[in-house]
Amino acid sequence: MARAKRSWQPREMQMVTEFLTKFYAARRWKTRVRLGSPPEALIREEMTPEERAMVGAWRRWADAVVYPPPDLIIIEAAIRPAPGKIAQLELYALLLPHTPEFLGIKYEKIRLILLFAIEDPATTFLARHKGIECVEYKPTWLPAYLRILMPRERRGSLPGKEISP
User: Fold this and answer.
1) What is the mean pLDDT of the chain?
2) What is the pTM of this model?
3) Disulfide: which of 12, 25, 33, 118 matches 77 by Cβ 3.0-4.6 Å?
4) Is 41 inside a domain boundary?
């Protein structure tokens, strides 16, 4: 018997917002943060601020950025992380110094956090190997969400042979 198609919901954004509210309430943070800068050839002096913002709409966006002091944290969230999240975080770290909105912000270092609810051991191994912090966070609504998933979707990948550097 076929399962009914579940409706899309922004679960990762809900998860990251709950996480930030719980653990970073004392700091400034922002979700869905555009990173990088538009090519100079597209910016014209006569453009209004709104027009300049539209030109920048193509930029990549991180799930969240936590502002300093002393560090600046870029967070990418996933219910079940995949290796592509690692590349996204690495790219965001490279784009951040070229992001106009962050040029005036002083910070000692950039920290990268992969936030997840269901661990994928291979992905977290690779992330840690690359210096990315891996944080497991189980939101209160996770059990209800897991009940609507297929059994294979309720867990990370099965462990295979141990990976070592």
Assistant:
1) 84
2) 0.79
3) 12
4) yes
